[in-house]
Each structure stands twice: as C-alpha cells, then as structure tokens.
From TrEMBL:
Keyword GTP-binding among record annotations: yes
Domain Phosphoribosyltransferase: 5-214
Source organism of this protein record: Coccomyxa viridis
Family: Belongs to the UPRTase family.
Protein name: uracil phosphoribosyltransferase
Name of the top EC class for this enzyme: transferase
Length: 215
C-alpha cells in the first residue's frame, strides 16, 4: 500500500483545527505541528525501519535490557521549504539523533512548475539510509517527485523513504504510484481534488502563508 491515513481521533481533531479558515496563524501552526508529531510517530513505527541497538542500562535498582535508537544511523529528515518547516519542529523531537537536510522549492503560480533554490542533501546517500520527507501539502506531487528523484539519484532507496504530509490529492498519489517501489506516504487525509490554481479542495489553503502569517 502506498498511502496510510491513521484513523486516530487526535489526527482528526488537529486536522479539523487546521481546516478551519478562522484558526489564526499560531493555532494553525500548532495544529500542523501536532499532526506532524502524530504522523511521524506512525511513519516510523514499522518494525525494522528505525535502526536500533540492544544493550543494558543500569537503573537505580538493577540492570535492564534496553533497546535504543542507533546514534550512528540517524534518520535523515528532508523538509521541503517553506511549509515543511512546520512539520520539522516535531521531527526533531520525535526522532532523537535525526539529521535535517533542507530542500527549498518555489512554485510558479501560473505553470505550477517547481524550481529548486536550496538543496542540503549530501552528495551520496546509502541505500539503507532511512529518509523522512516532510511537506504538509501533496497537491500535484510535482515538487515531491523532484525531491524523490534527487534522493534516489544520490543513492537513496525508495523503500526506505517515508513521506509525511497532512493533506494529499489523488493526482499526486497517482503519479507516485509508479516509479517508487516500496515508498510509503502518511497523511491525515486524502482530499477530493485540485482547483484550477493547483490548491487542494477542500484542503487547508496555502499552508506556508497560513503558518507564517504571510497571507
Ligand atoms: N500548497 C499549499 O499550501 N496548499 C495547497 O492546497 C496546495 C499546495
């Protein structure tokens, strides 16, 4: 399966807050941050995806067998600027030791074509690197596909990539369904369609502008 939509009531609650056009920027940003936390938790839950080590810890009362995240194999978090920054706040706390590699794309509002203005991906990625791409709105899928192709071109493997988004549209999922075997997308909702400006309907509006109060 390509896309997972958790049915947790907290996901529904924070999505409701984010959907409401009357939610002020701080409330909207808080809702997206909560959704990021919940969805990143889900996206990293699959057994074997998070690299762990086994060991022992001395507690005040004895010795316990413990499992902890392997500090030598940090998850590489790739926020797509600008709106991805809102989900990133939570990635850094949900995933201890994660590394952040920002990528920035700007969308031409007429052609809807995205062009890159920032890329902090390393030259080479390993096929077993765990990579988490975060972007709250998956509308046409054009930007995400460019980012995924870039990651794969540097050595990353689609089956190790998890995408966390808040709302996605069928158009994007259709494009992602071929060419990225094993890719998994985690979303709070799949909405019906895009409007003529490429916005998701009903969606959330412009997530970056709402989060950063630049409407
Ligand atoms: N980007 C947004 O912020 N919102 C959309 O609906 C589509 C793309």
């Amino acid at each position: 399966m390509l896309v997972y939509v958790p049915s947790h009531p907290l996901v529904k609650h924070w999505l409701a807050v984010a959907r409401n056009k009357l939610s002020p920027p701080a409330v909207f940003r808080g809702a997206l941050a909560e959704l990021g936390r919940l969805l990143i938790y889900e996206a990293s839950a699959e057994e074997g995806w998070l690299p762990v080590l086994e060991g022992q810890a001395e507690t005040p009362c004895g010795i316990a067998d413990v499992t902890f995240l392997d500090p030598g194999r940090p998850v590489k978090v790739v926020p797509i600027l600008r709106a991805g920054l809102v989900l990133l706040e939570q990635a850094a706390t949900v995933l201890p030791n994660s590394q952040t590699m920002h990528v920035g794309y700007v969308r031409n509002e007429e052609t809807l074509e995205a062009t890159s203005y920032l890329n902090k991906l390393p030259d080479r990625l390993a096929a077993d690197d765990r990579i988490l791409v975060v972007d709250p709105m998956l509308a046409t899928g054009g930007t995400l596909i460019k980012v995924l192709e870039d990651i794969i071109g540097r050595g990353g493997s689609p089956s190790m990539i998890r995408v966390v988004t808040v709302v996605c549209a069928p158009a994007a999922l259709q494009k992602l369904s071929s060419g990225f075997p094993g890719l998994k997308v985690y979303a709070a909702m799949i909405d019906a369609e895009l409007n003529e400006r490429g916005y998701i309907v009903p969606g959330l509006g412009d997530a970056g502008d709402r989060a950063f109060n630049t409407l």
